[in-house]
Specification:
The chain has one domain (23-126). The radius of gyration is 19 Å and the shape is globular. The strands form 3 sheets. Strands 2-9-4-7-6 form a 5-stranded antiparallel sheet, with no helix packed on it. A 3-stranded antiparallel sheet has the order 3-8-5, with no helix packed on it. The chain has a two-stranded antiparallel sheet with strand order 1-10. Residues 1-20 have low confidence and may be disordered. The protein contains no helices and 10 strands. With 135 residues, it is mostly beta strands.
């Protein structure tokens, strides 16, 4: 493979705002419950929402829905762990580019949901776009 050009390859990330760079990440809130239902302060728009659920008996999450039924929660591939001694399982999901105002998240599974934790973060672009640096 041969590369030709100005002698280097470089890319600048483009942020969501003015194109001058990515915003700083900020943790907006963390909420948890020892159940399948978590109350949160109303979610903001265009945020990343991460949901972790602990299930009994090596169960699996079958759905995650928020109070407005407007966000889609996607399983993070390979983000499933199980405890061989207790038989509990942990799964992690995310919703990118959140819609605003949901104030509760409900997790259902094939077995009992023992605990649920929610993190809401801003400044994380739902997609990263790159622009090429000029030579």
């Amino acid at each position: 493979m041969a590369l030709v050009g100005c002698g280097r390859i470089g890319f600048n990330p483009i942020g969501d705002g003015d194109g001058g760079g990515l915003e700083r990440w900020a943790l907006i809130q963390t909420a948890g419950a020892r159940s399948s239902n978590v109350s949160v302060a109303p979610l903001g728009a265009h945020h990343l929402v991460v949901v972790a659920a602990q299930l009994s008996g090596n169960g699996r999450v079958t759905s995650i829905i928020d109070s407005n039924a407007c966000n889609t929660y996607i399983e993070i591939p390979a983000a499933h762990a199980s405890d061989q001694t207790l038989g509990d399982a942990l799964e992690i999901f995310y919703a990118k580019d959140s819609c605003p105002e949901p104030d509760g998240i409900l997790v259902t599974g094939t077995t009992a949901v023992l605990a649920t934790v929610v993190w809401e973060m801003s400044g994380i672009a739902p997609t990263i776009r790159w622009k090429r640096r000029p030579c």
